[in-house]
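Students often ask what a 'structure token' actually looks like in practice. Rather than answer in the abstract, let us consider L-threonine aldolase, a protein of 343 residues. Its sequence is given first.
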Amino acid sequence: MKKLDFRSDTVTLPTDKMFEKMVQAKLGDDVYGDDITTNELEALAADLLGKEAGLFVPTGTMGNLLAVMTHTTPGQEVILEESSHIYLYEVAGIARVANVQAKPIKGIEGIMNPSDIKNAIRKENIHFPETGLICLENTHNMAGGMAIPLTNMKEIYTLAKENNIPVHLDGARIFNAANYLNVEVKEIAQYVNSVMFCFSKGLGAPIGSMLVSTKDFINRARKFRKMLGGGMRQVGVIAAAASMALEEMTTRLEEDYQNAKLLAEKLNDIPNILVDVNKVHSNMINVDFSNTIFTTAQLIQLFQNKGLLANPRNDYVIRFVTHKDVSRQDVLDAVDIIKEIIS
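Now compare that with the structural description of the same chain:
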């Protein structure tokens, strides 16, 4: 039985070209700055996003935490959207490690209203923490991979500059956002001071994320990376795969988007299944099964019995993610499985 894995784009396997590049990588000790492959990757990533420097890190969670640690001082407050990945899914690292307090704001489909942010910025008061950072997320995971409009990001960035507050972007899937918005990634990155993006999701590399910003910021973040145990040695082995991901994978993300739209459209035709096709912006869809007789826990097990894997959002919503290892035929096969079970 073939496995149809829609759980996440993190399940992707490296391409043959990635393996070839890993074998051929020029290596050195990256803590000493001697790993040529990693140095080249960091420079390439920074250039693509219009920033001065980059820092290769093991995970996106570490990249986001490093950004918060570098932008803020202990005791400050960070404004972020209440369903953001940093707030919900990064084990309270900004509180436990960075020693800052979260100020969550309710957004609409992951989009924060600039006026709400303005109201959340702390005024001078002996009782209040200082607002040290604003965090955005694009695409937005909990919003089903929706892209945040550049007009919204620009307005927030302008507000932040007026108040001398830096802005960090959790851009784990920023290349998916750029594909939907039909812009270069640097056009998104221009409205933030720092960006983290992942190589191990839609870009298909096995390991790694990148943090980009100014040279001074990255120098300070590099020391925090060492503190967190993220200083790696001959890391060019995996940096090589990440470099190949930037070369060969960014231009194929439209295929994942089209497959996600196809899945949404086909599922929307099945009675008692709800999918808002207009909210499909990237490679992710949220499917509402609340009008069926099943809970998501039951459905996940029934799907798994047929070789279909997906992840529950809650008791009635299941997330499906398309990626390079999911074909158009896989999408159609998944629809057939779901239709058979629901019917």
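One point worth highlighting: The longest strand covers residues 131-137. Ask yourself how you might have guessed this from the sequence alone, and why that guess would often be unreliable.
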